[in-house]
Amino acid sequence: MNNEIPWWASETFWKKTAIWVTGFMFVVLVILTLDTIPQITAGSERVPAYSVINKHIGYEFNDERNMQVPVIGDEALLFGKKFNEEEAEALVSHGKKITQGRNCMGCHTLLGNGSYFAPDLTKAWLDPGWSSEPEREALMIAFLMDPIENARLFGSGRVMPNLHISEEEAKAVIAFLKWMSSIDTNGFPYNFTVIDKES
Question: Among candidates 75, 57, 87, which has minimal Cα distance to 172?
């Protein structure tokens, strides 16, 4: 009886194989990371610069890509002010930190991450329930400052708790939401209701 183990079944072969596969996949991961970072940085083709908050942002169906895509239009100043790139970045970053600090992702989803109890916020700026852009700003500020009094339940029975957001913080969150709505997310979220074109 031959007790010799074939080379392909030996422990040494599989240890070496595991080491080589792990090393190869590490190199692939590094390459993918280096390729991804420029594509997800603000100011890239799919992630507009922060100053996009000075523009009208729409969402239209693209026949060629067979999905909804953001469309950056003419000037539509946020809160009636034109922000330069540094001011816009500071405001959007402040809004992002507020959403992180108040744990918005404990209930909401942002760019595919978070919870599914409350609405996805990726395209919240474009939500038709907020009306036209000037009204949208005021309605969103009022809601963020006092969500219980200004809730839009739509029969869901879910109510956002009062997170004691100041007006300045609300404006920063809105800037973050407007900027985030301009990101080309390859049609995500797929069930988003398209806002009617504003006249």
Answer: 87
